[in-house]
Amino acid sequence: MSGWPWGRFAIAGDDAVIRGGDYYARFLIEDDNGDPVDLTGAAPVMQVRTAPDRPAVLLDANPTNGRLTLSGSELILDLPASLTATLPPGKYQYEIELRYSGGRVAPLLQGPFEVLADIAPFPTP
Known about the structure:
Elements: E1 17-18, E2 23-28, E3 42-49, E4 57-61, E5 68-71, E6 74-79, H1 81-84, E7 90-100, E8 105-116
Parallel strand pairs: 1-8
Antiparallel strand pairs: 2-6, 3-4, 3-7, 5-6, 7-8
């Protein structure tokens, strides 16, 4: 649909979340013409589950908990080490939606979400 934000990214492979480490990523949301999308009034919501049809949520990210925010046309995912340390290593699925105050929901991104075990965990200072 023209004019709707779109994109796709996978948090897997080289971009996997390493258990016990900070994970920070910024994504520019563009329209079909490659122009930045004005996301004023949108609230991003991300959930990670073991599978799309499973009710248990492994990770929830949104502006309220500060893990997923918007800045202009950028979507910012910020997962601190204290959070990733609680995630069991494995392969999961995620979805990000933009929710608007009028009730409109725009699915934005979905795909694999991989958590790697930390190989050499260091003691916290």
